[in-house]
Write a structure and sequence with these properties.
Layout: H1 3-19, H2 24-32, E1 45-47, H3 51-54, E2 59-61, E3 76-79, E4 84-86, H4 89-99, E5 106-110, H5 116-124, E6 130-135, H6 138-147, E7 154-158, E8 169-174, H7 183-187, E9 189-201, E10 213-221, E11 227-237, H8 246-257, E12 267-270, E13 279-282, E14 286-289
Parallel strand pairs: 5-6, 5-8, 6-7, 8-9
Antiparallel strand pairs: 1-2, 3-4, 9-10, 10-11, 11-12, 12-14, 13-14
């Protein structure tokens, strides 16, 4: 086994430990997929984590183009001028483990960037699974199509993941921040289907696409006896511009102020009902509730 293969395996084991990943398919994917093939030629720009909260973002250039330097839990600049990065692997490992991609699944990846995490999902759903990777940014979509061309189980779509209709799916992985959960995403989940989406606040103008919103990542599982839901982690992420709404932002602000830990969210309800004490986020046509689904 060469040094790069060893580095990928160690990287995957680091992510397993850091993010408590349960899925063997995801660990296999992180140990197999070549991250350097999705980030352009090196040297690469590595984000200084201390600058994320301090701003402006600060990047450190790798000393050379040896891809072994990418097999660490680091954010890598895709477009440093816009603060656009290939996201932190431990965060994606945590969120994708909540998504629970399984062999044979049809997964939709909204906001695929240059394709690295789409490739991770594509590997995790082998054999017979497939991924539709959606990216609204023309340059990123072109890069993703080029980078993923060798993966026969991936379709790259240049378009808006808020309006693109993939048909019935097993899982939807949203990598851009929304103020609310779109009905389309929920409508397309098969029984047992999973949705992972960041819910983030946008107190500034949503037209400022370089901004980063703060909030939480939520996972929903569609069940015939009632949809379960859980808050997975805090998050700071770019906007999902088709899923930003001023009124929804206000309601989300109120929910986050009430706290976003523990059993704050245990179920996902659709349809009209009066707001109850258990309603954590009582939205327009949906509700994230602390009430457990009856078993």
């Amino acid at each position: 086994m060469n040094d790069l293969s060893t580095a990928r395996r160690r990287y995957a084991e680091e992510l397993r430990e850091k993010s408590r990943v349960r899925s063997p398919g995801l660990i296999r994917a992180f140990a197999t997929v070549e991250r350097e093939c999705y980030l352009g030629p090196g040297p690469w720009q590595i984000l200084d984590p201390a600058s994320v909260t301090a701003m402006p973002l600060v990047y450190q250039r790798t000393p050379d183009a040896d891809p072994i330097q990418l097999y660490r839990d680091v954010l890598v600049g895709i477009d440093a001028a816009r603060g656009l990065n290939n996201g932190q692997p431990s965060a994606h490992a945590l969120w994708m483990d909540a998504l629970d991609p399984r062999p044979g699944d049809f997964v939709v990846h909204v906001g695929c960037g240059t394709g690295y995490y789409s490739a991770i999902l594509a590997e995790a759903v082998e054999p017979r699974g497939r991924v539709t990777a959606i990216e609204i940014d023309p340059e990123l979509a072109t890069a993703a199509a080029r980078n993923l061309a060798h993966r026969t189980n991936v379709q790259v779509v240049r378009g808006d993941g808020c309006t693109y209709d993939p048909g019935a799916v097993d899982a939807i992985y949203v990598n851009a921040g929304a103020t609310h959960i779109l009905p389309l995403w929920c409508d397309r989940l098969r029984p047992g289907g999973r949705l992972v989406v960041p819910l983030v606040r946008w107190p500034e103008s949503p037209e400022e696409a370089s901004a980063s919103g703060m909030g939480v990542v939520v996972a929903i599982t569609h069940r015939e006896d009632g949809d379960t839901a859980a808050i997975i982690s805090p998050v700071g992420i770019f906007p999902c511009l088709g899923a930003i709404d001023v009124n929804a932002d206000r309601r989300l602000a109120e929910a986050l102020a009430r706290g976003a830990t523990g059993d704050a969210v245990r179920s996902f309800r659709r349809g009209a009902h009066d707001q109850e004490p258990e309603c954590w986020l009582h939205g327009d046509g949906f509700c994230l509730s602390g009430r457990a689904v009856p078993r």
